[in-house]
Specification:
Shape: globular
Number of strands: 0
Strand content: under 5%
Order of helices and strands: HHHHHHHHHHHHHHHHH
Distance between the termini: 46 Å
Structural class: mainly alpha
Radius of gyration: 22 Å
Helix content: over 70%
Number of domains: 2
Length: about 450
């Protein structure tokens, strides 16, 4: 948590500067590029990285690591060949001409990300949480400082966002490798066996069958505004949305990065040793994350437009309006960081696929209605409301699988959210009245 807090503070300090260097259109271009890379990342390892913390024996865990390495290298070769032949068509289709040759960084970024994800999962297994957090901190510093400097000297070209992200991923890969995982390279090579790799792939086949499609659908549902709003309202609106979403992700990443990996390791361990305790620790973490998220995310829901205009400049005020539509949904993005792991622990990955599909459909319907009405505010409002309701129901379903009293939990959650939202609305009304009185004076 302490390492994640430093990353968060750094983000809050530098983001107002970056928002005055890079225009919304640059963030829109980066959002489209990043969405393509994210989709490739999901496909590369077939979601087998999530299985690394689960085996009891180290030898079996090493086989899962070897499986991830083989899959990542294979995907790297496929994407490289595909870009060599179809790269120009992809640039025209996604309207990324301003990025130029930087589009060919995609396979390299995919390779670095998935190797880093594999090592991160290994550190979760070995409870080396400090190692993982330190590497994340260094990556954030390097990425943001480079992005700031490049944008300053080039006038805010979108390539600066991509190059900063690329340098950050390279730094993360090097940091994770040199923080202890290099000691596992010899055992990985010595124990390499195609037979054990095939056995691991079969044993954890639920991950490509259910977790991969579920994760892909979940990622696609979060990227829907990027793809749907680009054609309907242009890259500037997409940039405003992606900027708002990136800031809302900061508290989620702060708490989720600090708690979710630890909870996943503990939940897997408890399921092996004391399965009756799993529901208690899950409910405990659900309420803790709910309490933590209520105040900051409730505040930005009501005051987002004022905050963005004051801190980031007038051209980002609409991004603040978007945070008002999305803020309360991110409370359940926060709780889902931990509770979502339960599907893997209980080996009920098929439910993750079903719930993520429903999330995609409801979000898509909300955006489609707003686009049909040619009203970007309505599109984002319906996207936020559908996201909130769907993710809340997913959380309740997970708690139901653990045989917890979901009706009582749901009523308590709704009451707490209503009280927090009512308090901030009254505070906003008081602020508006005070502002009017000052203007009259």
């Amino acid at each position: 948590m302490s390492g994640s807090a430093i990353v968060t503070v750094l983000g809050f300090i530098l983001t107002p500067v970056l928002s005055r260097i890079y225009p919304p259109a640059a963030y829109g271009q980066f959002a489209v590029f990043n969405s393509v890379v994210s989709n490739l990342n999901l496909l590369a390892t077939l979601a087998y990285t999530s299985a690394i913390p689960l085996p009891k024996a180290k030898r079996d865990a090493l086989a899962v690591v070897q499986l991830n390495v083989v899959l990542t290298l294979s995907m790297f070769g496929i994407v490289t060949l595909a870009l060599a032949g179809l790269g120009a068509h992809l640039v025209r289709w996604l309207n990324l001409q301003s990025l130029g040759a930087w589009i060919y960084l995609m396979p390299v970024l995919m390779l670095l990300y998935n190797f880093s994800l594999t090592m991160s999962s290994w550190y979760i297994r070995t409870k080396s949480f400090r190692t993982r957090t330190t590497a994340d901190l260094i990556m954030s510093v390097v990425s943001r400082v480079f992005t700031l400097g490049y944008g300053w000297f080039t006038g805010g070209q979108s390539a600066g966002l991509i190059l900063g992200d690329s340098l950050g991923k390279f730094t993360l890969f090097g940091g994770l490798l040199r923080s202890g995982f290099q000691q596992e390279l010899r055992p990985l090579w010595r124990t390499f066996s195609w037979r054990r790799i095939r056995e691991a792939a079969y044993k954890y086949r639920e991950f490509p069958l259910y977790v991969l499609p579920g994760g892909y659908i979940s990622s696609l549902s979060s990227q829907l505004p990027v793809f749907m709003l680009t054609g309907a309202f242009g890259s500037t609106v997409v940039g405003l949305y992606s900027f708002a979403a990136s800031l809302l992700e900061i508290p989620v990443s702060l708490i989720g990065s600090g708690i979710a990996p630890v909870f996943y390791q503990k939940a897997a361990e408890v399921q092996h040793t004391e399965p009756e305790r799993l529901k208690d620790i899950t409910l405990n973490i659900y309420y803790k994350l709910l309490y933590i998220g209520l105040l900051p995310l409730g505040f930005i829901t009501v005051f987002g437009d004022l905050i963005f205009k004051l801190i980031f400049g007038a051209r980002w005020e609409m991004a603040g309006v978007f945070t008002g539509y999305l803020g309360y949904y991110y409370i359940f993005r926060l709780t889902g960081q931990a509770t979502g792991m339960i599907y893997n622990v209980l080996q009920r990955q098929q439910y993750a696929l079903i719930t993520n599909t429903l999330l995609l459909l409801t979000r898509g319907a909300g955006l489609a209605v707003g686009i049909w009405m040619k009203d970007v505010n309505m599109a984002m409002l319906l996207f936020g409301v559908s996201s909130l309701v769907s993710t809340f129901l997913i959380d309740l379903h997970i708690l139901y699988l653990l045989k917890l009293p979901v009706v009582r939990i749901a009523l308590r959650t709704i009451l707490l959210m209503a009280l927090a939202l009512g308090f901030f609305f009254l505070l906003r009304l008081g602020f508006n009245q005070l502002h009017i009185q000052i203007l009259h004076v």
